[in-house]
Specification:
Elements (H helix, E strand, L loop, with lengths): L3 H23 L1 H31 L2 H24 L8 H29 L5 H31 L11 H10 L3
Helix pairs in contact: 1-2, 2-3, 2-5, 3-4, 4-5
């Protein structure tokens, strides 16, 4: 059982939590995370609308999911590179695109797998029920990969420009050795 001192300590931690969140949101790292969230807030609805429209045209949510990802991967990469991490250098662009594409394909594979399962399970359901089920399957699939992709992009792919400064030649050389492409 917690002592009275523990309760006070935990209570004060909880009381300062919103203040710490606000402080973090104002930090360089917090602003970057909010930008990442902002890009996702744009691309998730666009992707979901595209999937719903393409499913009507193609007759399959699974095919629509794959085509939607093919259409949106490059704009999503560019938004993350230029808006979230504010990387303007064209150095190592092939590696950046490849790593982002692999992450996108992991996300679309998981989301499409979920979509296929839901599509099969809801074959006898109304179009509305199937659309809603696909929406949640897509969110679950991409949500799992979303956090992992942020960590890969932040800790590895765009790591040298965290504070807006351009990398020096030694840092660029170090990145080329991290992933030799």
């Amino acid at each position: 059982m917690a002592s009275r001192g523990d309760a006070g300590r935990y209570g004060s931690r909880m009381m300062s939590s919103p203040a710490r969140l606000l402080e973090h949101a104002r930090s360089s790292e917090g602003r970057k995370q909010l930008r990442y969230l902002g890009v996702s807030v744009v691309f998730v609805p666009v992707g979901q609308i595209l999937i719903q429209v393409l499913a009507r045209v193609l007759g399959s949510y699974t095919r629509a999911s794959l085509l939607s990802a093919a259409i949106l991967t490059l704009p999503n990469f560019l938004a993350n590179k230029y808006l979230v991490w504010k990387v303007s250098s064209k150095n190592n662009l092939r590696t950046q695109v490849l790593v982002f594409w692999v992450g996108a394909m992991l996300g679309v594979s998981l989301a499409t797998g979920f979509t296929y399962l839901v599509e099969q399970m809801t074959l006898d359901s109304s179009a509305l029920v199937q659309s809603v089920a696909v929406f949640f399957a897509q969110l679950a699939g991409f949500g799992v990969v979303w956090v992992g992709r942020y960590l890969v992009l932040d800790r590895w792919l765009f790591k040298v420009v965290h504070h807006g400064e351009e990398p020096d030649p030694d840092e660029i050389d170090e990145l080329h050795h991290d992933f030799p492409i």
